[in-house]
Amino acid sequence: MKITVPKIINLKNNRVISMMTAYDYPSSKAISDAEIDIILVGDSLAQVVLGYEDTLSVTVDEMLHHVKAVTRANPNSLVVADMPYMSYHVSEEETIKNAARFIQEGKADAVKIEGGRKREKMIKALINAEIPVMGHLGLTPQSKNIMGGYKVQGKTLELAKELLEDAILLDSIGCFSLVLEGVPKVVAQTITEKIAIPTIGIGAGVHVDGQVLVYHDLLGMKSKEYIDAKFVKRYDNQYEKVVKTMKNFKKDIENRDFPTDDHSYDAGDSLLENLKEWKKEVKKILS
Ligand code: KIV
To answer: What's the pTM?
Structure first.
């Protein structure tokens, strides 16, 4: 059954919410079949799929292309589209227009926005336009230049208080859930206890209402040399498996072990009966 925004809100204090990123049709199908509650078409698309250096480079059009691929799989999971950098920073009108493209053209169920009080006006405008919003606080990758890199946030009393205030604000203005990324576990736990909407952690410890990981990180779709963030758990090593499989294919075709007769088509009787004649025809054409 399709997961809805009210269902996600009701899961708080009932069971742990699962969220996974996806960027295409097959991963969307697999995640839905695994009964994951939420698919996030994250702007991590920029690095893990498109090969950009950071999330600042990805555009609304690029994101939309992938949101459409994900929703074409008709997943039961709630689909949340990540609003990319500069798509919700300029004006309320532009923010609504961009978010509406994800809902109307992309068929997403909700959008995600990074930031707290700085984004209050934009989030209120979206909710007024009937677009559900997932918040995102802590290590917000679109702020990497302001933060001076990808650093754990809320490590001092002052900064932890600011994070809590932002979380309370996002709850009070109507966000339906909140991603907490790269914050000390005690801060994430306190926020989770103080707000009514579910928190979904990534690098935020175990005392939150749900967990999210990036699809390619969890599956180990990066080479061994790539250093994962501390919060990543590789459940598989698919990069190594893919390389091994490609090598097997190359070896097979070089040894003429593939394709076999099982993978090839036979000619029809009439062609077989007239094979000699056909070969003569071919010679004539080539001469
Ligand atoms: O873009 C993304 O993948 C995200 C998650 C890490 C929360 O924002």
So the answer is: 0.95
